[in-house]
Amino acid sequence: MSEILAYIGPGLAEALAVIGTAIGMYNAIAAGLPAVAEDPGQRGRVFALAFLPATQTLVYGFVYMFLMYSSYLPALLSKYPQIPPNIAAGIFGVSIFVGFAELFSAWMQGKVCAEGASQLIKTRGAIFGSTIILAAYEEFFGILGMVFGILMASMLTA
């Protein structure tokens, strides 16, 4: 049973990242569509802002999940005939943390991108660069979540 818990965790982390990305992208897309309708020249900027929340799924959540399934969990199984319950619970807990870090990072990044997209017409696109920089602040928490998860996973499997 403990192995099942350990194996569910990384997939759940990626699933939570996907949820956050979907919400974040929706926010940015919904705010950007009126800008594109009013000025089709803003299309590229809206596309870029709408895609930013996807990094939590495509990069950070996926890298964490991939490392867990390809390296850390197989390393544990080479040490133990069965993953000990305390280590499995630790992996599950860390995975939940990573998943929520990615979920909220993507969600909030989408809100930042939505605010920027909604101001593209008013600023004639001048807000785009500032929005990218401000969205990177939210991105930072996704990076921290992944790095923390990898660090904790390496400590749990050492």
Question: Layout of helices and strands, plus pairs?
Answer:
Elements: H1 2-38, H2 43-51, H3 55-79, H4 85-118, H5 120-123, H6 128-157
Helix pairs in contact: 1-2, 1-3, 1-4, 2-4, 3-4, 3-6, 4-6
Number of domains: 1
What pattern of helices and strands is seen along the backbone? HHHHHH
> Treating each run of at least 4 consecutive H or I residues as one helix, how many helices?
6
Please, what is the average pLDDT?
96
Characterize the main sheet: none
Q: Which architecture does the CATH hierarchy give at level 2? A: Up-down Bundle
CATH superfamily: lithium bound rotor ring of v- atpase
Q: Strand share of the residues?
A: under 5%
Rounded Rg: 19 Å
Oligomer designation: single chain
Q: Tally the beta strands.
A: 0
**Which runs of at least 5 residues are low in confidence (pLDDT < 50)?**
none
Helix/strand-derived class? Answer: mainly alpha
Distance between the termini: 21 Å
Shape: elongated
Percent range of helical residues: over 70%
Output the CATH class name.
Mainly Alpha
CATH fold call? Four Helix Bundle (Hemerythrin (Met), subunit A)
